[in-house]
Amino acid sequence: MAVLTLLGGLRRFGRSQRRIGGTTVGEALREAQIPSRVLYREGRLNDDIEVLVNGRNIAFLAGLDTPLAADDRMAVFLHGARGFPGG
Hints:
The chain is an alpha+beta fold. It is built from 2 helices and 7 strands; from the N terminus they run ββααβββββ.
């Protein structure tokens, strides 16, 4: 099982670090029980959510289909660098 770390404001959705199942990032995010209204917007990953697998952004890998191995480390956070007001 991969290790999931929730950073920043996402910590309110569970323990900040835990083991999580799933063979892809998308499956692991579903198991993480973060509300879909936070993670997704218009059927795709919210632009304000960043997901790293072993320090690499999934946007440069296979997105939500990025495979996870048992020893992988996944970090999920709100990057919040879109400016003011409203991005």
